[in-house]
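#structure-requests
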Amino acid sequence: MKYSEAIRDALSQSLKRDERVFLMGLGVTDAKGVFGSTTGLQEEFGSQRVFDIPVCENTIVGIMNGASMQGMRPIMVNQRIDFILYAMDQIINHSAKWKWMFGGAQKLPIVIRAIVGRGWGQGPQHSQSMHALFAHIPGLKVVAPVTPYDAKGLLIASLEDDDPVIFIEHRRLYDIEGDVPDGLYSVPIGKAAILREGSDITLVASSQMVLVAQRAGVELAKVNISAEIIDLRTLRPLDEDTVLQSVQKTGHLIVIDSDWKACGIAGEILAIVAEHCPFALKSPAIRLTWPDIPTPTSIALEDLFYTKATDIYKNVFISLGHPLKEDNLQIEKIDQPFEGPF
């Protein structure tokens, strides 16, 4: 099943199971169905529970907050995470804080599907990730699944959760295929997954960067370097234990994050390691992140902007203190061209 189909399956089963769930978003009733993730849902559940909305993010999140106060469980699709910035007052000052302002007596169980729009031609205003911004706010939960199995399970878990959840989807994942069970199941929020066992170095990533790390891991194995790859899956709360146990085993750490370096998730993970096991590292930890500039628009500049599997590959050799030979690096096998624009 494709990633997009897994999300649709989670939505369909959740709508069927719980009458309090309703879905709204720009394009949810469109023929393309938000990359195929909402196709046919209005026909299945009616226009009272699945409907399109105007372009007014702050108002829509306000409606979600109000509905959730009355016992509903709304989910909104935002096709550009960039434009959620228009709703920050509602999200930060209301959604995240409401439970705490009233001593836990009232909860706001909302889910915002936020899509990262990377692709050449998208430029600085349509390709941001901003997960660190949301993960910084107490009261919000932030998830970023990379596999179809996790996409379905984490979305169901998000809709069951009593806290507001920012559910981040990378548009380059929608055609990824994987095994997905038919029935209802949930993946626990706050638990990372070890996708590849290893003993030489720990690679930590989330969302689409997990696939890039896996690509590097395959090539590293060909030169007898054993990389342990951790998919964070949830960015708030972070699964500190899984990361710490891996670093204590390997002694080397690289964090790959599709975001800027300053005040980001990569820095947070390095801080956690420094606080809890500072002497476990045999070499300085490495952060692979975006350059400290807005995302460029042209395909040539964008190619230089994003972290590639070759970047991970080279930095593993740096971390381990091994010389990098030309025959170690098989660029054409690691990095694949990306089609664009949107």
